[in-house]
Amino acid sequence: MSSYSKLIIFVAVLLVISAAIVLIDSSVDSINKTMPDISSSIVEGDADYNEAVQLVNDKYYSNSMDKAISAGNNYNNSLNKLKDIKNEYSSDINDVQNEYIGTVIKELELKIQAVDKLKESIECFEVYSNYTGTNYASEANDLIYEATKYQDQRDTIVKENPDLFKQNFII
User: Fold this and answer.
1) pTM, to two decimals
2) How do residues 60-76 score in pLDDT, each as one tens digit?
């Protein structure tokens, strides 16, 4: 094999490696750019949910329903973005990051179920079906409690892997 052929092979291999590095960097950049939006939507969802509960307690059912719908929209927004990341970039994230994303997905799925139960309770309270409304509200509380276990689990993942979560990857 001539030195010219070896040079061409070397350059081709170098180009392939460079392209792979650029693709990996761009996917990590894409993930890092998305994480703050996901985090913000979760925080807003939590605030809306808590406000909806307070408004139910104060018997402002219409306002409570608006806040519950907003909480659900925020949680769904974050959930969809996380599922997109998991589907599109699964080969670019490591096992710990994958576990972290899976944990947040489970947390959000429970919070969405809690919002649905809260909305059902609001509908019952509006028509003075207080016993049924209270049962739905209790189910919502149980789901939120379960969701906090996943929130604690993801906090533990971050604490155990501080170097991995220095950047924007934390929700």
Assistant:
1) 0.82
2) 999 999 999 999 999 99
